[in-house]
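Title: Comparing notes on inverse folding

I've been comparing how different people in this forum approach sequence design from structure. To keep things fair, I'm posting one structure and asking everyone to reply with a full sequence. Here's the target:
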């Protein structure tokens, strides 16, 4: 709470000052996110290793989160021992990491080659959402080119659509107002539908199926619109080229001849 309103309000601020500074705080936070997004899309942090998995995270994650992931790729593992558990159907690894000159850290990792699922005893992914150096060393040992989709969290993606941007404030641009109004109308109507469907499992299943059908139809419509827009642009470009390459008409002198 204090970090969010840092440099905007104090304990002595009045209620009217709080309302005004709240809008200023949202505007400042939104501006910072736009600046970070611009940096993420127009700059690239070089990979620390030649791992294709690191390049996979580099392409998807924001700079801030990729630096955290990159720190795990820099982690050094001293040696790995491998044992296959034929009963359970996965491989168990023992990874030893040197923490200091006289301290060694030992972890056990399970790996399923079919699903490409890896789980480490340190539980770093479960707590912080990034794979640890132990798991990455096992994936490298198994010559895995890319990780399973479950290990790439959408919340760290640079392409994520932030839902809080639909919240209106006094700093909104006029061009965003129609979108905000459409969003409010959709939320209102969907709330009534969801409240009705939640009365039974059957109605909930019907609504889920309807949502899937509508989502597929909207994506298909969006793709058709993109293709149509692209074709229109190409036709306009070809028309401009033909006009430039066409032979110009030169008017002849005198009265035009009458043709029978």
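Reply #1:
Here's my take.
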């Amino acid at each position: 709470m204090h970090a969010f309103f840092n440099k905007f309000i104090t304990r002595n601020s009045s209620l009217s000052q709080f309302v005004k500074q709240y809008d200023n705080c949202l505007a400042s936070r939104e501006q910072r996110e736009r600046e970070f997004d611009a940096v993420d899309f127009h700059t690239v942090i070089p990979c620390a290793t030649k791992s294709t998995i690191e390049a996979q995270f580099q392409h998807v994650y924001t700079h801030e989160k990729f630096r955290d992931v990159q720190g795990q790729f820099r982690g050094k593992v001293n040696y790995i021992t491998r044992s296959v558990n034929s009963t359970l159907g996965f491989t168990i690894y023992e990874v030893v990491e040197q923490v200091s000159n006289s301290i060694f850290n030992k972890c056990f990792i399970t790996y399923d080659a079919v699903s490409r699922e890896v789980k480490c005893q340190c539980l770093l992914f479960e707590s912080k959402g990034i794979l640890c150096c132990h798991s990455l060393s096992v994936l490298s040992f198994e010559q895995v080119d890319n990780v399973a989709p479950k290990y790439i969290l959408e919340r760290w993606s640079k392409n994520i659509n932030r839902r809080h941007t639909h919240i209106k404030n006094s700093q909104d641009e006029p061009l965003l107002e129609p979108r905000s109004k459409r969003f409010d109308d959709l939320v209102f109507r969907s709330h009534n539908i969801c409240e009705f469907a939640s009365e039974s499992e059957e109605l909930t299943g019907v609504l889920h199926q309807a949502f899937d059908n509508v989502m597929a139809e909207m994506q298909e419509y969006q793709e058709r619109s993109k293709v149509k827009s692209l074709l229109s642009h190409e036709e306009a470009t070809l028309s401009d080229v033909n006009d430039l390459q066409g032979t110009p008409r030169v008017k002849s002198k005198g009265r035009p001849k009458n043709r029978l």
